């Protein structure tokens, strides 16, 4: 392919930081896909957005736009694809994701197949689309450099959320190329036969096993924290990559709090004041 000069691929600063034992904090998105959304998240301090394609029903065109809106913001776009099939993983990376989360990872063999989809030959089997797709900003440059840079920046997040996955979590974490082992806490309790029982000793044992596997193999444990208490508790347990909240619930909870407050002010007095603040009972 003709070389038009070009630049190096934009780096992913989170990957080396996590590999060195650091932390990364961001949020997860199911519903809000406006042009300004990534900027809002970055201004709030998020270092990454984990977009959902498994449950949200959103398509690749929408994701491509969101990944483009993340450019220049020092914000890492990540995506949970619907499954571990090649066409989901490779396409997500080609349109600009810097990492993929794959659900329902249960074996080391699955994890290795996922990693292969994210790496160019000879390390994997990702197909090449240089200069013509968003992942390299449509820029020129030597393919050998781009291959090395893409392999280096791409994050692989294995979502472990079944009893079988927990049973094999040590082998999953041992797979070269898996960067983060993410705890799928809700589904895990369902598959363990203890739906929603997050205080159950079986659940706590599973969490401990995942964290220990990550420590043993130098990988990062990841988690979606729905509130402040969960964030504190799972940081204390050693989770270093945490998405704080889901867009829908963050907005809904904030609005519910404000509406409840307003209803409280309305019940303070049975007769509302006039618009100018004069008590309605006061005669003119």
Please explain how this structure is put together.
The chain is of the alpha/beta class and 284 residues long. The protein has a single domain (14-266), classed as Phosphoenolpyruvate-binding domains (TIM Barrel, Alpha-Beta Barrel). 41% of the residues lie in helices and 15% in strands. It contains twelve helices and eight strands. It has helices at residues 14-19, 37-43, 60-69, 86-94, 108-118, 143-153, 163-167, 169-173, 185-191, 201-217, 228-236, 247-266, and strands spanning 24-29, 48-52, 76-80, 99-102, 155-160, 180-183, 220-225, 241-246. The protein has an eight-stranded parallel barrel with strand order 1-2-3-4-5-6-7-8, surrounded by seven helices. Strand 1 (24-29), helix 2 (37-43) and strand 2 (48-52) form a beta-alpha-beta unit. The longest helix has 20 residues, at 247-266. The termini are far apart. The relative contact order is 0.13. The model has no long low-confidence stretch (mean pLDDT 93).
Gist of the model:
The chain has 284 residues and is of the alpha/beta class. It contains twelve helices and eight strands. The longest helix has 20 residues, at 247-266.
Q: Provide the succession of SSEs.
A: HEHEHEHEHHEHHEHHEHEH
Largest sheet: 8 strands, parallel, barrel
Query: Regions with pLDDT < 50 over 5+ consecutive residues?
Result: none
Average pLDDT score: 93
At CATH's second level, what is the architecture?
Alpha-Beta Barrel
* Span of the ends, CA to CA: 83 Å
Total helical segments: 12
The assigned structural class equals alpha/beta
Shape: globular
